């Protein structure tokens, strides 16, 4: 894939084949449900399985919401500690992935509460997906700078849509807003990113 | 409709071509599993109370104690109100208040009849 402007002009990046399939995470839905069932039965190793299946998705959502790696790690830990506490009550969960993302969203919102909405990102959200070379690192820095300028609500929707392949209804469920609001946030966020890419971020 | 949506998605994803979200850092797994292990070994309320050794010993002990006290001699069963007893020609009647009263002044305490005390009282 290449990064292009709306007119098809290449802005950053070179052909790339290692991007994750948009709904690759769905393949693990069955395994996740099984692990949750085992966690509900008090199996401690099941929490490790849940972590292995979903850690990146949970952490990324927390990071894109908080903008701080330390807060994101704390938010994910909060979720797993809560899972350990809930025990048998986990059996009633019908959509484990959505449930866990919702939990981490709430934890991240809580963690980010004290921070200003305009606070700069402390940590990178995106990294080059292949062997890092100086050009890719520069592109990643540029992209992170643009993402940092997006409101948190728009940023997290862009992540869930573009990198986790979720529908707006699912995003709405996770972020606690109607699907139309989720779609609106996404379109606003993407439109801004396109504009900044076209102008190299010169206008707001 | 679906194809349009897919095309739009592909176009949006191209904005981030060659880039990927950072993912969970090294060390977070161990940290989290350590934290959850601590939680699992110390369950929260009410499980922590119910599963504690103190609870499992104290509650049966308290129940047993109550049963023993209830069955203790002199406590139960109590004679019915109005029951009359006669001691050395003096008739006493058990009042509602649980005391034994007689035609003579004074009352005698209820409970296990202490002959000496009763005698003294009358």
Q: Largest beta sheet of chain A, briefly?
A: none
Shape of chain A: globular
Which two chains touch over the largest interface? A-B, 55 and 28 residues
Distance between the first and last residues' Cα of chain B: 105 Å
| Morphology of chain B | rod-shaped
**CA distance, first residue to last residue of chain A:** 26 Å
Strand content of chain B: 5-15%
Query: Mean pLDDT of chain A, nearest integer?
Result: 79
Query: What is Rg of chain B?
Result: 39 Å
The assigned structural class of chain A equals mainly alpha
Give the oligomeric state of the chains in this entry, treating copies of one chain as homo and distinct chains as hetero: heterodimer
Q: What amount of the residues of chain A lies in strands?
A: under 5%
Number of helices of chain A: 8
- Tell me the number of helical segments of chain B per DSSP (H or I, 4 or more residues long): 5
Helix content of chain A: 55-70%
Summarize the structure.
The complex is a heterodimer of chains A (204) and B (122). By secondary structure, chain A is an all-alpha fold.
Describe this entry's structure for a reader:
The complex is a heterodimer of chains A (204) and B (122). Chain A is mostly helical and 204 residues long. In chain A, 62% of the residues lie in helices and 1% in strands. Chain A has eight helices and one strand, in the order H-H-H-H-E-H-H-H-H. Chain A has helices at 29-40, 44-66, 69-86, 96-111, 134-149, 152-163, 168-175, 179-199, and one strand at 126-128. In chain A, helix 3 (69-86) crosses helix 4 (96-111). The longest helix of chain A has 23 residues, at 44-66. Chain A is globular, with a radius of gyration of 18 Å. Chain A starts with 28 loop residues before the first helix and ends in a 5-residue tail after the last helix. The model of chain A is unreliable at 1-24 (pLDDT under 50). By secondary structure, chain B is α+β, with helices and mostly antiparallel strands. Chain B has a four-stranded antiparallel β-sheet. In chain B, a hairpin with a 2-residue loop joins strand 2 (84-87) and strand 3. Chain B is rod-shaped. Residues 114-122 of chain B have low confidence and may be disordered.
């Amino acid at each position: 894939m290449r990064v292009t402007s709306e007119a098809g002009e290449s802005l950053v990046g070179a052909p790339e084949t290692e991007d994750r399939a948009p709904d690759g995470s769905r393949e693990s839905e069955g395994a996740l449900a099984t692990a949750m069932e085992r966690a509900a039965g008090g199996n401690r190793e099941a929490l490790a399985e849940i972590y292995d299946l979903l850690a990146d998705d949970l952490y990324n959502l927390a990071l894109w919401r908080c903008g701080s790696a330390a807060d994101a790690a704390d938010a994910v830990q909060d979720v797993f500690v809560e899972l350990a506490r809930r025990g048998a009550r986990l059996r009633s969960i019908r959509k484990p992935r959505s449930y866990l993302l919702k939990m981490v969203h709430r934890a991240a919102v809580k963690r980010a509460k004290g921070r200003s909405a305009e606070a700069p990102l402390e940590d990178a959200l995106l990294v080059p997906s292949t062997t890092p070379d100086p050009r890719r690192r520069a592109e990643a820095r540029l992209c992170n700078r643009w993402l940092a300028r997006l409101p948190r609500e728009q940023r997290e929707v862009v992540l869930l849509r573009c990198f986790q392949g979720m529908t707006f209804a699912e995003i709405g469920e996770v972020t606690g807003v109607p699907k139309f609001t989720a779609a609106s946030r996404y379109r606003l966020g993407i439109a801004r990113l396109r504009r900044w890419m076209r102008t190299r971020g010169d206008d707001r | 409709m679906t194809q349009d949506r897919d095309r739009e998605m592909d176009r949006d994803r191209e904005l981030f071509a060659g880039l990927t979200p950072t993912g969970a850092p090294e060390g977070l797994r161990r940290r989290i599993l350590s934290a959850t292990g601590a939680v699992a070994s110390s369950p929260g309320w009410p499980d922590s109370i119910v599963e504690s050794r103190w609870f499992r010993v104290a509650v049966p002990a308290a129940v047993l104690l109550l049963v023993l006290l209830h069955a203790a001699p002199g406590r139960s069963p109590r004679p019915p109100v109005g029951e009359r007893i006669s001691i050395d020609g003096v008739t006493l009647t058990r009042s509602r208040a649980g005391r034994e009263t007689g035609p003579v002044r004074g009352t005698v305490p209820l409970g296990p009849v202490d002959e000496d005390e009763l005698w003294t009282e009358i």
